[in-house]
Write a structure and sequence with these properties.
By secondary structure, the protein is α/β, with parallel strands linked by helices. A seven-stranded mixed sheet has the order 1-2-3-4-6-8-10, with helices on both faces. A three-stranded parallel sheet has the order 5-7-9.
Amino acid sequence: MTQLFTLTIPITSPMQSHPGTLTLSIPNPEHPTLYLLTFHSPPDNRLTTSFCQALLLALDILEFSYPPGVLVTTSSIGKFYSNGLDLEHASSTPGYWEKSLFAVWRRFLTYPMPTVSLLNGHAFAGGLMTAMYHDYRIFNPSRGFLCLNELEFGAPLKPPMSSIFRQKLPSPHVYRSLVLEAKRFNGPDALAGGLVDGLGGWDEVVAFVAERKLAEKGKTGVYGVLKAEMWRESLGYLEGFEQGEERDKEWAKREDVRIEEGKKRVAEWEKNTKKSKL
């Protein structure tokens, strides 16, 4: 294995207490443009600001310092690919969404070479979303689950979090199971549902890349442009974050009014019901 560079994920505040590293390497000399970017931010590769900023820098270094090829991301932590974001950190850090998390997703969505997420273990919530913003996914067949568990801890999905599943999943039933049931998909279920493109580890990734001749795809310079057009809906939500936030606030206001009016109607109904029984 040839190690190209390592970036530090620093602790910049008590809210970002997940230090670690990102390492780019070439695992196989016979495949010099098959790049492996390995996450290591114990215990579960949380998508903090520091993590996202280091990842953005890694993507820039690869794009502008090395020949085009195929980028594979994975984790050195056997149990987790990524356990998603830290809600407290995300909600209390100015600019987190548009400058860190959504910036990472936009980079993957429009990256000028093929990207493959090698899911070695669990990918929950934002971790699974990040994998979906890659072009392809290969999942461990015997360990880990893929899940959107926002339902379980009461968090809504922002537009870029859900649109990528609408666009990429072949079945609305799988989308429904993810969002409204918080179903945990193991390897075979994820493959059957179209969440992943294959099952296996590094060897299977190498075979997958070779079969589809992915190492050649980024050489003409239009790969990222084609993806931007292909996934226009999700890209629009990523870039229109502020408008989406305003739309959600207006919807929340209307919901408050609806709930208040509904409670009043129910109270009036109960009052009239009691009177009719007297």
